[in-house]
Amino acid sequence: MLQTTAPKVPPQRDLRNFLEELYQGRHLQAFRAGQTIPLNPQDIWIVCRGVVQLSTLYPNGDEALLGLACSSMPFGLPLSLIYPYQAVALSDVDLMCLTLTEVQQSPDLSQEIFQHLTRRLRQAEAMLAMAGCRRVEERLRQLLLLLQMEIGQPTVEGTRLNVRLTHQHLASAIGTTRVTVTRLLGKLKEEGWLRLDKDRHIVLL
């Protein structure tokens, strides 16, 4: 279902470099892993370093993963119709905040943000396709393949996911329980499909 390699797309300029050229002197805002990112109706955040988890809450309190905003990806209330909509730093992150007015008044900036929004669109489509898988194990495999493309770092032993994900993170993303994810990860390790490194990061083999 999910391609194991990213599709061929035109190379995209690093949005952080573009923003630093455009807004010299504007400071980045740093958030530690686990911190909630404040969201305002007129603000768009750009990820300059790290990964931000985007999610919503169901009425029963369960959390549902909407996506991961990685380097150069934009996110914020103006880009979503979901409510409630929350953003939490999954790792230590550096972000730049732009107002909606700034984006609307700059054709160059709008074009740059649009190009990186296509990454979010492809990610969202992959997650929708994943949600349609009946078997939980297949949903987990598809999620890990998606994470491999988004936050994977090639190593000698395999592809290491740069962010340490808890079993609850994975469970929320695929609509199952933490206990089920723990069992399935053990099964995938036995099959030689993945392993955990010394820092407890997942390595896909």
For the sheet with most strands, the description reads: 4 strands, antiparallel
Structural class of the helix and strand makeup?
alpha+beta
Large-scale geometry = globular
Radius of gyration based on Cα positions? 17 Å
Can you put this structure into words, describing what you see?
With 205 residues, the chain is an alpha+beta fold. It has 2 domains: 15-129, Jelly Rolls; 135-204, Arc Repressor Mutant, subunit A, CATH 1.10.10.10. Helix content is 37%, strand content 23%. The protein contains 6 helices and 11 strands. It has helices at 15-22, 100-104, 107-131, 136-151, 167-174, 178-190, and strands at 29-31, 43-49, 52-57, 63-69, 74-75, 86-89, 93-99, 152-154, 159-161, 194-196, 202-204. Strands 1-7-2-5 form a 4-stranded antiparallel sheet. The chain has a 4-stranded antiparallel sheet with strand order 8-9-11-10. Strand 3 (52-57) and strand 4 (63-69) form a beta hairpin. Helix 3 (107-131) runs antiparallel to helix 4, helix 4 (136-151) packs across helix 5 (167-174) and helix 5 packs across helix 6. The longest helix has 25 residues, at 107-131. The two termini are 19 Å apart. 30% of the residues are buried. The model is unreliable at 4-10 (pLDDT under 50).
